[in-house]
Specification:
Elements: H1 5-10, E1 24-26, E2 41-44, H2 56-64, E3 68-71, E4 75-76, H3 86-93, E5 108-109
Parallel strand pairs: 1-2, 2-3
Antiparallel strand pairs: 4-5
Amino acid sequence: MSLPTQAYQKAGAVISEDLSEASVIFGVKQVPVDSLQSNKTFCFFSHTIKAQPDNMDLLDACLEKNVRLIDYEKLCDERGGREADGAIWQHWARGEEGGRGEGRKATRCSEQ
């Protein structure tokens, strides 16, 4: 089940294809390299932290475009455990309920 666009609008979201005015852009899955905008902050699962060969073009593009990348994979709780679970975020993106991290706050973010 996903929420219709009107539900987001009713909650106050501005729906736009043009993200040039956005200061932070949130996603769940990897952003296509050609969709990265220079000098922006992007939050998504990049799958680059372990230098996976398939994702090096994405990391290179982030560096070239001066993108601040906040990778959900590196958000940790006070014990160092991962705060974000890809499956949970996919449910969230589709507007489904549930999630072990609901209402919790990440206390640190590794910059490794």
